[in-house]
């Protein structure tokens, strides 16, 4: 059964006028129909990709908003909130930077107010270490000879008394004033 209908239409893809033999024809030729189909499918893929990205953004934002409302958080939730690793959160807990309570095996809980308090505190300023000139310092070997002490014993004293070391080239220097104070107090303690 052939159709005797002829309708003037405009091609949806290229925009040219053509004579259609059916009422559902939308393109002027088979090539235009294939190109229009590909364009339609391409647009669908792009729209799907955009929707997926928007859903992911909403999922990403929503947990942070939920975390801000909760009173007690886990270490993993704190790492999301602070934008750091879980290992860093446990490091902060072990060093006392963040206060936490361990309620049992794998039940570390952190109060939300403790995290807020981190940012409310003034910046902890560490005092700047005094800069020593190399002329005011002993090298390690000079200190060993002057005080007649072994290298390992001197290293232990430096570490125990937290005496700053100055590295210059291949030599390590320690301030004369500080090392003299240490050995003078030790001599007083002995007698």
UniProtKB/TrEMBL annotation:
Pfam families: HTH_17 (PF12728). Coiled coil: none annotated. InterPro entries: DNA-bd_dom_put_sf, HTH_17, SinI_DNA-bd. GO terms for molecular function: DNA binding. SUPFAM superfamilies: Putative DNA-binding domain. Residues 72-120, 138-184 form the Helix-turn-helix domain. NCBIfam families: excise. This is DNA binding domain-containing protein, excisionase family. It comes from Epilithonimonas hominis. The lineage of its organism: Bacteria, Pseudomonadati, Bacteroidota, Flavobacteriia, Flavobacteriales.
């Amino acid at each position: 059964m052939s159709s005797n209908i002829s309708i003037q239409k405009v091609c949806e893809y290229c925009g040219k006028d053509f004579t259609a033999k059916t009422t559902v024809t939308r393109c002027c030729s088979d090539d235009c129909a294939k190109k229009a189909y590909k364009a339609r499918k391409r647009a669908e893929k792009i729209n799907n990709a955009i929707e997926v990205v928007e859903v992911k953004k909403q999922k990403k934002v929503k947990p942070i908003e939920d975390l801000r409302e909760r009173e007690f958080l886990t270490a993993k939730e704190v790492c999301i909130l602070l934008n750091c690793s879980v290992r860093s959160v446990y490091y902060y807990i072990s060093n006392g930077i963040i206060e936490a309570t361990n309620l049992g095996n794998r039940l570390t809980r952190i109060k939300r107010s403790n995290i807020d308090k981190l940012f409310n505190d003034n910046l902890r300023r560490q005092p700047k270490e005094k800069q020593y000139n190399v002329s005011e310092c002993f090298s390690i070997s000079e200190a060993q000879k002057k005080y007649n002490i072994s290298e390992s014993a001197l290293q232990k004293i430096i570490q125990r008394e937290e005496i700053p070391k100055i590295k210059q080239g291949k030599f390590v220097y320690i301030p004369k004033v500080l090392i003299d104070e240490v050995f003078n107090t030790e001599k007083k303690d002995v007698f």
